[in-house]
Hints:
There is one protein chain. The chain is an alpha/beta fold. It contains ten helices and six strands, in the order E-H-H-H-H-H-E-H-E-H-H-E-H-E-E-H. The protein folds into two domains: 10-21 and 99-228, 3-Layer(aba) Sandwich (Rossmann fold); 22-98, DNA polymerase, domain 1, CATH 1.10.150. A six-stranded parallel β-sheet has the order 3-2-1-4-5-6, sandwiched between helices. Strand 4, helix 9 (180-189) and strand 5 form a beta-alpha-beta unit. The two termini are 20 Å apart.
Amino acid sequence: MIAAPSGLRWLSFDCFGTLVDWERGIIAVFSPLFLREERTLPQPALLSAYAAFEAALERPPFRPYRQVLRACMRALSEHFALPLAPGEEDALLRALPRFPLFPDSREALARLRSRYRLALLSNTDRDLLAPVLQSLGNPFDCVLTSEEIGAYKPDPRCFEALLRATEAAPEEILHCAQSRFHDIAPARVTGLRTVWIRRGRSGPGAVPPSEARADHVLESLSELARWLGGEG
């Protein structure tokens, strides 16, 4: 593997999709609804529809992520003709803070923290993120959410806010994320170096497609930790 980039002080991360297995979480929310209708869950179609609805709902004007999740739940239930019982429009909202971590996330972040300062840039509300941060072991020196910024990735304002909050030059940050649409493309526009964490991805899944090219491509956070020498 090539040498680690020089001059790095910060590693920044996306959360849902990179550290948290949000596709597994989304599927877990919708599986009972399809089962109740005695239908097979169409996984690729569900994730693709989620990506399209969420991206549309995250365009300006800004709305809190809890509203985005409720609107996604309603839109997907209508799209797939899934009747919702009272209170089920909040199913994604209730489940999101408990979506499962990828098995390597906590350990890899702990190892990387021994060498770099860590930042998190997430398309969510702060209170929804709090349980996830606790599950990860609260490893971050800087946490920014769309709620605070007033914009969602891929809006470049998110990465401009990251630069201000870390007081770092673009070349001092390496941004690590699974979504090329939300993260890799706008991070590169802002001048950050990037790592695409593929997570076994062969298609876009629950994010819109993008042809953005990262500086480096790795499969997992464990691979990232090995590459950057975060051995603790």
